[in-house]
Design a protein that fits this description.
alpha+beta; about 350 residues; four-stranded antiparallel β-sheet; single chain; about 25% strand; 6 helices
């Protein structure tokens, strides 16, 4: 698998997509949906109303930063994180699961005001709106850079606001159609017969878990364009020794691991072996799943290490593994929920 691009601080991953659309058409559709929904979602105390009112406030100060009431629209840290994330997902994200593939990193600056009376760090809506627009532009430009007709924005995970930075992980999608034949374990070595260099078994496991849920939302009667995610979070990196099992005929863990000495032979994973490891991913996700959320995106990556055994042997040794990270979120359809505010 291609190694990740490393840039300090925030996270924006690209995952994978399903519908062949241009960014402009996606953005126009989402904005029309928000506008249409405003006229009917003004009463009650549910999540969708809160998100729409937050978007309204940003629209107001975008047009008039000196709006008098804006000085009262301040948000504590956790609340600002929740609202920025929810608004990004409401306006831009399609609530579906896709293939995860490439990761980029990005950060956005937000200014703060300090409430000297109660000693809390507060973020004013004017500064939040500026940072929100920065992230929105980044979502759009990064989307345009993806060289695929089968792509779209999946979900945003606003991780934290710390030291003047909004740390944000953005997931996109690209459709990949591949089969479970014989594939090399990793390092983008392709199939064991030499075809399809550039992807590997880790990619196949990732695609298989993200791809078919469902394969095309626009041909699915249950698809609701107003659905979105809140409370998004991503697990820590889960390694093979974090998920032991006694039922795997290929090894003692639910993630691939191969340890070799002296002569390195890159492991060729059969279709049957790929299915076994692929079927473990939802089980792993369930083990690490926080309460009141569900998996959105599964990421599977390859890694390796090399060294020498102790004297007098001094043999070369290699360890080849797969690791995973799972992004979770709370599926929202406008039902009453009380976010932090």
């Amino acid at each position: 698998m291609n190694k990740k691009i490393t840039i300090a601080i925030a996270f924006i991953i690209m995952a994978i997509a399903i519908q062949s659309c241009k960014k402009d058409s996606i953005e126009l559709t989402i904005k029309q949906e928000v506008t249409a929904n405003k006229s009917i979602m003004r009463e009650g105390d549910n999540t969708e109303t809160k998100v729409l009112m937050f978007i309204d406030k940003m629209d107001i100060v975008r047009e008039n930063p000196e709006y008098a009431q804006a000085k009262e629209w301040n948000y504590e840290n956790d609340s600002a994180v929740w609202y920025i994330e929810a608004a990004l997902n409401y306006k831009y994200a399609y609530k579906y699961q896709y293939y995860s593939e490439v990761e980029y990193k990005y950060n956005s600056i937000i200014d703060s005001t300090i409430n000297q009376i109660i000693g809390l760090e507060l973020f004013n809506i004017v500064n939040i709106q500026k940072s929100f627009d920065e992230i929105s532009i980044k979502i759009s430009t990064t989307y345009d850079e993806i060289e695929s007709d089968n792509k779209f924005f999946v979900v945003s995970d606003v991780i934290s606001i710390k030291n003047g930075l909004i740390n944000t992980r953005i997931i996109y999608g690209i459709v990949r159609e591949v089969s479970f034949t014989n594939w090399y374990w990793g390092l983008a070595m392709g199939q064991c017969n030499g075809n399809n260099v550039g992807i590997d078994a880790a990619d196949l496991i990732e695609y298989n878990n993200n791809g078919p849920n469902p394969p095309n939302p626009f041909n699915n009667n249950s698809y609701n364009p107003f659905d979105y995610y809140t409370n998004v979070s991503t697990s820590f990196r889960i390694m093979p020794h974090d998920v032991p099992t006694s039922s795997n005929i290929w090894g003692s863990h639910m993630l691939f691991e191969d340890i070799q000495q002296q002569t390195l032979i890159h492991h060729c994973m059969s279709g049957a072996e790929l299915y076994v490891y692929s079927n473990y991913i939802p089980t792993i996700a369930q083990q690490y799943q926080p309460s009141n959320v569900s998996p959105i995106v599964y990421e599977v990556q390859d890694d390796w290490a090399h060294g020498l055994t102790n004297p007098p042997d001094n043999y070369d040794w290699w360890v080849m593994i797969h690791w995973t990270e799972i992004t979770y979120g709370k599926h929202q359809t406008g039902m009453p929920v009380n976010p932090t505010d």
